Amino acid sequence: MRIIYQLILLWLSLNLIxxxxxxxxxxxxxxxxxxxxxxxxxxxxxx
Amino acid sequence: MKLTSEKQMNKFHLGISLGxxxxxxxxxxxxxxxxxxxxxxxxxxxxxxxxxxxxxxHYLPNLSHTPGDTRVYLFEGQEKGGNILILxxxxxxxxxxxxxxxxxxENLKVKKGRIFLIPQANLSGFTHNDPFExxxxxxxxxxxxxxxxxxxxxxxxxxxxxxxxxxTYTNPAGQKLAGTESRNLNRxxxxxxxxxxxxxxxxxxxxxIKSENIHLAIDLHExxxxxxxxxxxxxxxxxxxxAAMALMDLQMEGFDFRLEASPPNLRGLSHREWGDNTSxxxxxxxxxxxxxxxxxxKPSVALIVEGRDNNYVRAAKLGRLFVPxxxxxxxxxxxxxxxxxxxxxxxxxxxxxxxxxxxxxSDYPSPQELLQQGFQxxxxxxxxxx
Lengths: 47, 386
Hints:
The complex is a heterodimer. By secondary structure, chain A is mostly helical.
């Protein structure tokens, strides 16, 4: 169960990073970065 | 020319993206480090009277190496007598119970009978602190030499350790509650050996009470000044006589308490399930904690320790509180002193009512001295090892 959750988080995080590089508008990039923080923290700190 | 400009733009965007990614990494590192630091247990320096320290998994092996495997301190006298369990930190955002047990662990010596102390009953709850409440992660108290730090946690088990919450939670006693209450230790009794982390902790505590033949079990809490069950001694019906006798003594000592009978249909709480499922006399104690309330102003370390808040002064003047409250606030030292006075009186009357269950101790921290001198004489130096 946990590994599925982590894989989903990893998939979404990678998509956000991709979006961060593709997007040209700074405000959109910043939004993606802020969401990415939450996803990465959850991905790395889950016990 | 256009191509060069496009290349420059691409480089600029790449730079921005990389910069943002670096910022994300930095924020993750700093916040992650802060989050993980909450897993570090605060040192507790037991008095020379400590007989044994072990973990709660002693009573439920599958709790071992989980975030709920909390410390248990046993003080045993030379003579046989009564057995008492004192629980602090059921709700880690109610520090008076936690600190009262720490003060006991660092000073107490038992001559007759046994006293079990669990300072952080919901250990997982100490590893997070309700981010939307903006509470500080730690608070600080003066010790004999230096300053000691203690974690200020959450009422509930860390969701990182137990997730997801159900929409509605039916606790082991059969009561239906809001989903988040599945992480509330004081709704999880009598627990389940293969249940959630919180239910396992509750089960292990019940097993401790049964296997150690605990005669008196006390759960130390705090509540918001606007909450009706405040400055209260909540008792299971079998502990009614004990609670009534202790109350009279406490009133004479200047500690204003009210008696509250444990409602028979409010299931899952310590004072109900300990009493129904074990032979122990169960009592829960409440003090008034402004940092815990909904009317408080800015959360801060000072609010936790000094208990002063202008919003509560105003609420008291409007007659909205259930305790007297003025500009002096209700400091942690006073809240801990109340707990210590009540525990001592309950223990004393246990021996009066049942002479073979008498518990005798020395070096008990004096509530009056705590009121006058604060924590400094009662807390061990943060550095010196015993």
